[in-house]
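Hi R.,

Here's the chain you asked about this morning:
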Amino acid sequence: MSQPAFTSSSSTGHSMSATQLAAAPPEAILDGLDEEQRLAASTLKGPLCILAGAGTGKTRAITHRIAYGVRAGVYDPHRLLAVTFTARAAAEMRSRLSALGAPGVQARTFHAAALRQLQYFWPVAIGGTMPQILDHKVRLLAEAARRLHVTTDRAALRDLASEIEWAKVSTLTPESYLEVATAEGAGRPAPGGVDHRTFAKLYQSYEDVKLDKHLIDFEDVLLLNVGILEDDERVAAQVRQQYRHFVVDEYQDVSPLQQRMLDLWLGGRDEICVVGDAAQTIYSFTGATPDYLLGFKRRHPEANLVKLVRDYRSTPEVVKLANSLLADRTRESVKLNDPAPWPEPLQLISQRERGPIPKLIQHADDDTEAGWIASEIKALQDQGVPLSEVAILYRTNGQSQAFEQSLATAGISYQLRGSERFFSRREVREALAALRTSSLVDDAGDTVSKSVRDILSSHGYSAKAPEATGAVRERWESMAALVALADQLSTEREDFTMRSFITELEERSAAQHAPTVEGVTLASLHSAKGLEWEAVFLAGLSEGLMPITFAKTQKEVDEERRLFYVGITRARKFLFLSSAASRHTGGRGRRTPSRFLRPLRKEMGIEEPGRKIIPSGGGLSPNASARKKKASTCSTCGKILTNGTEVKRRRCESCPARYDEALFEKLRAWRSDYAKELEVPAFVIFTDATLEVIAERRPTSDEALLKVPGIGERKLEKHGERLREILKEA
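And here is the predicted structure, written out as tokens:
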């Protein structure tokens, strides 16, 4: 039961249309499900726990369960609430339910559901005007710190904000936080450079500032809703009358506060279905805990338990590595007779045909690693893999710069997940306005896709991608994504109209559920959860990054292992695992590959990296390879350079600059304005080191510009005209 190439394993719809399903018996909805999915989907009564491994079609199982229950008359679609953790996942669930002939089911995030109830019941339960919701805590935290005469910087304020969020979802007040954090064996580090007692005071001061300004924050939405449900039995009864059945997705990520609200919604009833995988718990730092999932049968002894282990996403080669990673920790737990044993993980069974063997390699330095990844992506592109089906995943956002630089140099388009949102882009907003006001808004059926193309043609769309790069290409990619979505929906939905397409776009905009944009995805491992690609590069797999250096306890290291597992299981066919021995070119190579790679090497039959061999590469060790390179020297003092930035500048950091400082500052100001215009980080255009060389050499021709480190053919084509203008002015 393998999936077709470049098709999401979790988004495969039912082969029958909504109209056909409506005419068929309810059991027709179960057609096409595997044995375990069918068991889950046909178990409609009582508590149900679905343990679903990565790529096993959990969303398919629960949406078919809901649709089957609605068709069978067991569920009233307006009295069932499905909750998940992201607006994107909720929008996806609503879309699938609509396609399965079950519109009207409420699919929301915990916060969206709580906010809706809070807004509705506030006038009756509390009275007065409901406070505004605070977007960010930092500004109010800064004021709270000033009131206490506590000195903090912005980075510390972000840490303090995160700790407040953790405390709130863990249902801790400033007083109870201090008791928990300072309890013997708690081991919770003090946040933001302050001690626990000072933090508790800051927490209370922050609450006071909020109260003074008549504001509430994100976590208060849940806390206040819980308070109303606990204190006002009439409100609780009304909510329980409204919702009779509940489905909770990603149940391993539930926090104590969310579980408390869920219990209040249920009011002692047992009509609940939970879905999750303890091996994918990666948000413990936000208060998430798999304890509720693992203890579900203990709390509900009569609950049915279904395990989904057939992996339709990844090849056997990828699945084998994922299983090996978890099995290694299981063996370790048994060997150590762990008092808090590692929970027995699901052993996935791939349903796909065999694929290529994953690549595992260590590089000399970060730049070499980034360059290798770019070359491998080029090779994949030549094989027909779309760039939108490629992702580079890393542990921290700070790692992205090297990959951005290497992709830009290679002329490979990319998108940073977590940067500017698709529906916030100017060209997308303009396109939506054009669609809404078009005279073709009443078109329906087969003409919708053509109408969308006609409307967007005046906004940068064409059947063939432009050869130009930069803003022109980015605009075209945005328009092409909208056209592709129109094509997809017109084939999936009957009675598809331009109006329904506009409604879909508006709903997706509200949920930030963006269509696919052509380009390599750069993302942190945390932000990759719930996504998948044909090819995945897991980069920077060195000790200190994976596991991260501040993971000290076994519990924290276990979370890092699960994060790595999530990264591996994002890949459908091609998987690349890489690390770098040194941060800078010519460095001493002190980094060691991640400990998590050991069981994978054993599975793949690759020896541990020695002093002379690069794993799976067969070349010289990073140190030996670096020594063979021709040394770069400072153009002023002649000292050998080892730092990558110094090499690019051709001078030591301590040697005086040889460039025209006035021109350099003018170039920096130009770059800043230009970056805002393109809506990209400034370094993506040119780094400071490149601007220094330009200010020193004052190149006047394309040939001279191409000799500047950091300027290649693509950058010259993309930014050359604007750069020549500023140089001419100077």
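One quick note: Residues 422-511 form one domain.

Cheers,
M.
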